[in-house]
Amino acid sequence: MTRMFGWGRSLSSESDVISVSTQQDAAQLLMQSHPRGITARGLGRSYGDAAINSGGTVALIQDGLCSKEVGTSLEIDSGNGFARIGAGVSIEQMLRALVPAGFFVPVTPGTRFVTLGGAIAADIHGKNHHCDGTFGQHVQSMRILLSSGEIISLDPKVNSEWFWATIGGMGLTGVVLDATIDLIPISTSRIAVTTARCRNIDELFSLMSDADSDDHFRYSVAWVDMLSKGDAFGRGVLTRGDHSDTHDDTPGQSLSYDPQTRFGVPRYFPNGVLNIATIRAFNELWYRKASKNTATTFESITNFFHPLDGVRNWNRMYGSRGFLQYQCVVPIGAKNLIKEIIGMMQNAKLPTFLAVLKRMGKQNPGLLSFPMQGWTLAVDIAVGSERVESALREIDEAVISAGGRHYLAKDGHMSQSTFLRGYPQLDTWRDIQRQMDPIGMWTSDLARRLQLVGEQS
Question: Which of 26, 58, 138, 183 has its CA 20 to 30 A from that of 268?
Answer without folding.
Answer: 58
